[in-house]
Design goal:
Layout lengths: L1 E6 L4 E8 L7 E9 L1 H5 L6 H23 L8 E7 L3 H18 L3 E5 H7 L12 E6 L4 E8 L2 E7 L5 H11 L6 H9 L24 H14 L3 H31 L3 E5 L6 H14 L2 E3 L11 H13 L24
Parallel strand pairs: 1-4, 4-5, 6-9, 9-10
Antiparallel strand pairs: 1-2, 2-3, 6-7, 7-8
Bound molecules: 5'-O-[(R)-(carboxyoxy)(hydroxy)phosphoryl]adenosine and zinc ion.
C-alpha cells in the first residue's frame, strides 16, 4: 500500500510517499517540503491568507517532485492522506481540497489525519523506532501535552498547558528579544552563547503535583527582565535567552519524568517542533539514561511539520485497522481538534 500524505496546516507545505505492508513499520519512499518562513518573516509571524495562497502554489509541484523521486506515477498511489486539523482553516482547506480532488480523480480513498497524531507517530520513521506503550511529550507551536500512548489511536491525555504552549513561550520570548520569527530555533541558537543561570526566571506549575503546564507567566517575566535591563539588554541577550530556554526545558523535563513515574512506563517519545531543541534532548537523554528509560525522537528534519508524518500516521491507522479510508470525497477540516477526541 502506498500512501500519499499532504500537510498544510500552518506555514509548511509537505508532501510524502510512504509504503506500508512489506515491513511492520511503514517506510518513507520520498518526501518534499516547502517552508514559508521567508515569506512570513517580513510580518513577524504567519499571515494566514498568505499561507493558504502559498500552499496552493506549492502542493502540486511538491507532489510531482515526490512521485519522481520515488520513481512512480500517480496511479501507484493507493490512499491519499491529508491533515484535517488542527491548524489554520484556510491552509487546511488547501491540503484537504487537493487530497480529495486527487482521490476522486484517481478513484482512490482518502483519509483525514490529526496533525498531532502525525507528530506523535513520527519517531516510527527513525532508525530507532519506539514500541508501544510509551509516554509522549508533544511540543508544537500551539500545543504542549503529555499523553499515554498504548497503540495507534489509543491516546490518553495526562496533562497539557493551561495557557501558552512551550513553542509559543519560545516564540514570544524570542520576539521580545528581537529575534524575529520563527523564534524557537533562533532563541535556542543564541542561548548557546549565554549563561543559563544568569537570570532567575519562574518555572510555572513545576510543583503543582499534576502534569499540566503554564508558560504565559514566563513570557511576562522575560518582558519584565528585558524592560529592567533597558539599554543594558543588548550585551545580556544571550544570557536572557539561555535563562529562558533553561526555564522552559526544566519544566518539560521534570513533567515528562513525572509522567513516566505516574504511568510506570519506561519509554518516552518526544515529538513536535520543540522536540528539535538541543538542550531539551541533552537533558532528557541524561535524565532518562539515569533511570533506564528509553527516549525516542523523530529524525531532526521530521521534528517540525512535514508530509511524511501525515502519510505515516495514515498508513499506521489503516494497518492497525483503527480507521478505513473513504471514497466519500466531501471533506471538512477541524481547525480546533483535541487529539484525545479522535476516533480510535
Ligand atoms: O511542530 P511544529 O513545527 O509546528 C506546529 O505544529 O506548531 O512546531 C513549531 C514550534 C515553534 O514554536 C518553534 O519555535 C518551535 O516549534 N521550535 C523550537 C525549535 N525548533 C522549532 N523550539 C525550540 N528549539 C528549537 N530548536
Ligand atoms: Zn506541527
Amino acid at each position: 500500500m502506498i500512501v500519499l500524505g499532504i500537510e498544510s496546516s500552518c506555514d509548511e507545505t509537505g508532501v510524502a510517499l510512504v509504503e506500508a505492508g512489506a515491513s511492520p513499520v511503514p517506510r518513507l519512499r520520498a518526501h518534499a517540503l516547502h517552508s514559508q518562513v521567508e515569506m512570513h518573516q517580513a510580518y513577524g509571524g504567519v499571515v494566514p491568507e498568505l499561507a493558504s495562497r502559498d500552499h496552493i502554489r506549492r502542493v502540486l509541484p511538491l507532489a510531482r517532485h515526490v512521485l519522481a523521486e520515488a520513481g512512480c506515477g500517480l496511479d501507484a498511489v493507493d490512499v491519499v492522506a491529508y491533515t484535517r486539523g488542527p491548524g489554520l482553516a484556510g491552509a487546511l482547506l488547501v491540503g484537504a481540497g487537493v487530497a480529495c480532488a486527487l482521490g476522486a480523480a484517481l478513484g482512490r480513498p482518502v483519509l483525514g489525519i490529526h496533525h498531532l497524531e502525525g507528530h506523535l507517530l513520527s519517531p516510527f520513521l527513525s532508525a530507532d523506532a519506539p514500541e508501544f506503550p510509551f509516554v509522549a511529550l508533544l511540543g508544537s507551536g500551539g500545543h504542549t501535552q503529555l499523553m499515554q500512548v498504548d497503540g495507534v489511536g489509543r491516546y490518553t491525555l495526562l496533562g497539557e498547558t493551561i495557557d501558552d504552549a512551550a513553542g509559543e513561550a519560545f516564540d514570544k520570548s524570542a520576539k521580545l528579544l528581537g529575534l524575529g520569527y520563527p523564534g524557537g530555533p533562533a532563541l535556542s541558537r543564541l542561548a548557546q552563547q549565554g549563561d543559563a543561570q544568569a537570570f532567575k526566571l519562574p518555572r510555572p506549575l513545576l510543583h503543582s503535583g499534576d502534569l499540566d503546564f503554564s508558560f504565559a507567566g514566563l513570557k511576562t517575566a522575560v518582558l519584565t527582565q528585558a524592560k529592567k535591563l533597558g539599554e543594558a539588554l543588548a550585551p545580556r541577550k544571550a544570557d536572557l535567552a539561555a535563562s529562558t530556554e533553561a526555564a522552559i526545558v526544566e519544566v518539560l523535563v521534570k513533567k515528562s519524568l513525572a509522567a513516566l513515574k505516574d504511568t510506570g512506563l519506561r519509554r518516552l517519545v518526544v515529538a513536535g517542533g520543540v522536540g528539535a531543541n538541543r538542550r531539551l534532548r541533552e537533558q532528557l537523554d541524561a535524565e532518562c539514561a539515569r533511570r533506564g528509560v528509553r527516549v525516542h525522537y523523530p529524525e531532526l528534519h521530521l521534528c517540525t511539520d512535514n508530509g511524511a508524518m501525515i502519510a505515516l500516521a495514515a498508513a499506521m491507522r489503516l494497518q492497525a485497522g483503527a480507521q478505513s479510508a473513504t471514497t466519500a470525497y466531501a471533506f471538512d477540516v477541524r481547525p480546533r481538534w483535541p487529539l484525545h477526541e479522535i476516533a480510535a
